[in-house]
Design a protein that fits this description.
Elements: H1 3-11, E1 23-29, H2 34-48, E2 51-55, E3 59-68, E4 71-83, E5 86-93, H3 103-119, H4 124-138, H5 161-184, H6 191-211, H7 216-246, H8 253-263, E6 266-267, E7 270-271, H9 273-307, H10 310-321, H11 326-335, H12 341-361
Helix pairs in contact: 1-3, 2-3, 2-4, 5-6, 5-7, 6-7, 6-9, 7-9, 8-9, 9-12, 10-11, 10-12
Length: about 375
């Protein structure tokens, strides 16, 4: 932001908010049409250097970012909605704080002040022109239809085998590593579930690339299977490691698990019993799957988008914007060299991936 805008923001009186996710909301009335309003809203976001992450027919969302110690992070999400001239401006904290120190109120009122400042520069004729320009942008009227498209890559028939094999192998390796760490007593809950979930998702990602397999439902089932293999495998490896390293008399695995349950879980000097141990196992399973699924979804969406050249995705999306149905889009793609059904399916999946990415960007 410019020094003038920073000074303007500094002068805004704070209104402190508290909560698990502090938020502040305010609004105003406008005589502007919806298209003119959002055209000016885009100018406000550009002036404030807030990143637009989501747009629909009646609302737009942006995130404010700051850079500290070389790390860029988003601090607030600002959602602007239009409902027949009634404007709602809401700012919501993205961090873990329960007190926003008035920052959300500053974002809301700063938006409103800058909006009013830009709006007053437009007369009636200017606003009509602004509406036309906004409509042209929304309808992709300035899009230049390509005469040719990049050729599709060699079609690779989707197969789940690579995902399955790589996922199982990595799960066994992770189970062994977790068993070694758990025996030393250095296991840190949340951290290790995060790392294991990331490792699982990354390994499945490699299988996705090798097998060109993108069915999220079945990928989720494989992730669940891998999570269970890691849990059971960890117990089995712990059993063998303890017996071998301590020269204990050999007992059965189920007897070993029975003894573990009887001993319960000890955190520092507090033993929370077998119930606590079982609860800790459930938490580990749940967190590992959740982290893994979040990473896997990100990886999959990124793969879907990058698998298809941007020019092809944009061309197909343009046709959809212009009201073409799926059959007509496939026909147009065929004219420009994308005749294989699998390749065409990948184009539609890329569009779905972009929409999914927009939704993920909205997550708090």
């Amino acid at each position: 932001m410019t020094p003038e805008l920073k000074e303007l923001e500094r002068q805004i009186i704070k209104k402190h908010k508290f909560g698990f996710t502090p938020k502040y909301e305010s609004g105003f009335q406008t005589c502007l049409s919806e298209k003119a309003f959002f055209a000016i809203t885009n100018q406000v976001f550009e002036k404030l250097e807030w990143d637009i992450i989501y747009i629909d027919e009646h609302a737009v969302e942006a995130k404010r970012k700051v850079k500290s110690l070389g790390i860029t992070q988003y601090t607030e999400s600002i959602i602007i909605s239009y409902n027949y001239g009634s404007i709602t401006v809401k700012s919501e904290s993205l961090g873990s704080e329960m007190w926003d120190n008035g920052r959300n109120s500053k974002r809301v009122h700063l938006f409103m002040l800058v909006f009013q400042d830009i709006e007053k520069n437009y007369n009636r004729e200017d606003l009509k022109q602004l509406e036309k320009e906004q409509e042209s942008i929304e309808n992709w009227d300035n899009y230049i239809i390509p005469k040719e498209l990049p050729k599709p890559k060699n079609v690779k028939k989707p197969t789940i085998i690579f995902v399955f094999v790589i996922g199982i192998l990595i799960s066994i390796i992770l189970a062994f590593l977790l068993a070694k760490i758990s025996i030393t007593g250095r296991y840190i809950i949340f951290l290790f579930e995060f790392l294991v979930g990331l490792a699982l998702a990354f390994s499945i990602k490699q299988g996705i690339k090798l097998g060109n397999y993108t069915n999220l439902t079945k990928l989720k089932y494989i992730l669940i299977l891998c999570t269970l293999i890691i849990f059971v495998g960890t117990q089995i490896f712990e059993y063998y490691i303890i017996l071998i390293e301590n020269n204990f008399e050999k007992i059965g695995f189920f007897e070993f698990m029975k003894i573990r349950l009887q001993q319960g879980l000890t955190i520092k000097d507090l033993n929370i019993g077998s119930i606590g141990l079982i609860i800790s196992w459930i938490i580990q399973l749940f967190l590992t799957f959740i982290f893994g699924f979040l990473f896997l979804t990100r990886f999959l969406i990124n793969y879907l988008i990058k698998r298809v050249p941007q020019e092809v995705t944009e061309f197909a999306y343009y046709l959809i914007i212009k009201g073409k149905d799926e059959h007509e889009v496939r026909k147009e793609l065929t004219y420009l060299g994308w005749s294989d059904e699998i390749s065409q399916n990948e184009v539609f999946e890329a569009i779905d991936g972009i929409q999914g990415n927009n939704e993920l960007n909205r997550t708090r």
